[in-house]
Amino acid sequence: MDNPIVWLNGELVPLADAKISVLDRGFLFGDGIYEVVPVYAGKPFRLAPHLDRLERSLAEVRIANPYSRDEWAALVQRLADACGSDPCSVYLQVTRGVAPRQHAFPRDAKPTVYGIATPLTLPNAEKVEQGVAAVTHEDRRWQNCHIKSTSLLGNVLMAQHAAENDAMETLQFRGGFLTEGSSSNVWVVKNGQMFAPPRDNLILEGIRYTLLEQLCAACGVPFSARAIGEAEVRAADELLITSATKEVLAVVQLDGKPVGAGVPGPVFRALYAAYQRAKGAA
Ligand code: PDD
Fold this sequence. Notes:
The protein is of the alpha+beta class. It has helices at 25-29, 47-61, 69-83, 125-130, 153-164, 207-219, 230-234, 266-281, and strands spanning 5-8, 11-14, 32-40, 43-44, 88-95, 112-119, 132-138, 169-174, 177-178, 185-190, 193-196, 223-225, 238-243, 247-254, 257-258.
């Protein structure tokens, strides 16, 4: 895996030979969007909603979609097959392309398309069984967090904040209300009910958002999306985070204090098991 085959602008090439211009707007401005699709047993998991979101992100930032739906699906499969690891994750990125550095859109740049599949290292048994720690921070990102943009400096700083505090994730609050992690959605359990922040411009709607909602229904856990105040988060019985690469994890410590009983709770355990079943059934 030192020199995997990657996709760059219509060709499969070894990573070491994949070169882009320093004038690429992804490099200069973070002017691009991306997707991360997990692949289990050679099959992309929840591919359709991932490709829906890719199309939505492109439309939001007004980059012309370079490929048809079938071409995207074929590319994901091709990269996953080339990777040869199970599970793996496919990363796709589209930037506005190469042009002299001017902030406004160039008239005729061609989008740069990059894709790579890498082995997916899922959280180990200790993290699943014992849960993880999180810290909190004010959400200082822009107000278009619903776009899966490669402009991730705000998220990078929050991931670093977690790393420097021996935590797996930083849970963010905007004006006293929960938004999301640096690279995950956040779920709050109270009295057997599940809550998550509304799907709006302040969070990225994870593909696991709808999935977890469906798994809640299957497990008999009532779910509602609504604004969640900071005090509610700190008084939660359970906190969960979800993402393509973390799947679903229990947060058992927040800013050094135990969450609920301080161990992964029954709602986490039910949803984790349901998630594993959903993977197997895909
Ligand atoms: N991140 N919110 C943010 C800010 C994220 O970056 C992610 C995922 C999610 C969860 O989305 P999903 O369930 O579709 O993975 C929520 C990916 C994994 C990443 O940036 O690598």
